[in-house]
Batch of 4 targets.
Target 1
Amino acid sequence: MVTERRFCRFARAAPDHGNTSLYTTEIPEGGLCLSSFLIVTDGSGRVLMGHLNPEAAWDRIGALDVERTKTHSKGWMLPSSHLMLLESPQEAAQRILREQLGMQGIEISEPMVVAEVGTPRRFPSLPKHWDFEFIFRTKAPQGTPPTHEAWTELRYIDPSKTPRQDIARSHDEVLENAGFSF
């Protein structure tokens, strides 16, 4: 029996075996992102967030072009990145620790996985976008926030006392998905 349904079973090319109509090479019109986020807490419920340094190589360490880096540098962001091609979410989380925070050997949780499909809140005229978020948690190895050239400032903030408009790139929604209140 052949179905007319199209499933999100992605492959570069349909395999030579089986029903090739069950595979697709297309992606949603609005795009599809796979991203890892780090929620680093200090033990008091505060979360490590930072202001991007627009001079840092965010195209390399976070998949952000120059314009987005400038725009998002004005608000608080979680250490995060799109996954690199063929990189696992766990490998991405460890890369974020190294490249954005200068930390190594830090134990992280298994990821909480969140999938969202919708029109970007800040760009309502765009087509629906698909986001797959891998949210990892870890506790800070020390009480003071790290410093790193990728950020102009890193600080532990209390999401419940931080206005949403002060958080960039919809990272307020990531925190909300992880159980934090605003």
Target 2
Amino acid sequence: MKTKTFTERVRAIVAKIPKGESMTYKEVATKAGNPRAARAVGAIMRSNYNRDIPCHRVVKSDLPAPRPDTYYVYAILCRNMAIYIGQTQDLQQRWQQHRDGTAADYTRQNGAWKIIHYEMYGSREEAVLREKHLKTGFGRKWLKREWKAGRTRQAGGSLGSYNRGGTLRKQELLKAEGAL
């Protein structure tokens, strides 16, 4: 039996992404057997013109890599339009857990859509204090106001380019499928 190439594995994975869902380039690369090949996945998607492979469902991650003594407070917009707030030391890993439904009951039940804000702190204590503040009525009001004004640090699923009509076309397709 012939072993599939990395390109064939990537295309097979992307072909199975259901309507209304998306994966990051890194998630696709990891599933294809090489977690460090996110850029290669992007190159494969750029050269894909097969309409059976929905390359518009592959998005950028845009999350910072974990660093020693750095803690993150984050806010996730759920599919029910509610905002989940948490803190972690590894934002990439925690985001993946939320997307997989293994991080918190709330995001498992209501779906983690995208990270609408994150902040970095030098200690867990600072991050916990900020998380507590954002969970208050005043904190949530501030967060919603800043997010709607476009002043928050957003990540976890920006669209990236699309080889059949640019980013706007990719956005239109994902909206039509219910992924945005």
Target 3
Amino acid sequence: MGVLLTVSYDGTNYCGWQDQQNGRSVQEALSKVVYMAYGCDFTMLGSSRTDAGVHALGQRAHIISANPCRVPTHKLPLVLNNNLPDDIRILAATDVPDNFHPINAAKSKTYRYTICNSRYHNPITRNQSAHIRYPLDIAKMTAAIQHFIGQHDFASFCSTGSIVKSTIRTVYTLDIAKYCDMIEIIISGNGFLYNMVRIIAGTLVNVGLGRITPDDIPAIIVSCDRTRAGKTMPPQGLTLMEVDFG
């Protein structure tokens, strides 16, 4: 049997989830303590490859090893957390079949994008939010989100250079709310293209600033032209909230 971990982390000090040569990854830090628990080689596959500076409340990681873990599954979070850095925590661990695939089995993923909409960026939330100093019109942004919901070709919202078989994705829900100076955009879908959430957020910012109207969104989607959508918003505003396996 494999083990499925639910992982939460502050991505500020990491080059992303996946192991890379240009910096320390969340996967690298986690692998070191998992090896201590297993005492043997293993493979680890995350359900989402978050970028540098991106956070997670509900990342999933599947661990497979030829030998069983020396720690009972229900005690694994406590053991791993005692050895992990303070910005990574295991929230849960469950047994799953070895052939379980955390990417292919995912029915939906939910992300949150947070914007600090004030004259000055709040230093307390600077690593968990992007900053827009000019007032954003939430009513217009709310009117725009309906156009993203459903199945569309989201090529306009994919960073150039990304190689995928299809740019068609389905957005199940998209909501926006403002709490004092903080704006939260929460989006759920069957999958997301590279930087898709951050580009959608950037496009909604353009709506909020009055650069485009809510009714411009359908034409931007249909165009499949990356240059017509908004900029890619900074990574620190993005958090992987949940991966649902149905």
Target 4
Amino acid sequence: MKNNIIANAESGEVCYLSGTCPGKRHDKRICDDEAYSFPALSGLFKDTGFQGYEPDDVLTYQPKKKPRSGELTGGERFINSVISSVRISVENIICGVKRCRIVKDTFRNYKSGFDDSVMEIACGLHNLRIRHRRPSLDLDLLAFCT
């Protein structure tokens, strides 16, 4: 089973979950079938599984591969490290979803629609955990002065 996830690297939350696809299906093909829509001029940091996926009005970033007979320039290495740092946070989000072991183990339930529900619940639990991990402190400093 395979799903695509669109995550917000800043907040650490899952923003979009694709439908569950059976078998070995390519990531880019799932994107093409789902027809995602992004806000204009948003940044999309993608890995090599999405090579060639270029949505309209979106700034896409993908690491540059080293040429067969050569080296990357210093600027290209720096850009690759920046892209990798964002991708690490996205991979940590995916790892947070996979804390529910039913998502990462072999799925043996063949009820129709159950695989989608399991993935939705795992993403929802991850978002709930992220939202309550660091509760925001709303302090009224004027209340302490009186």
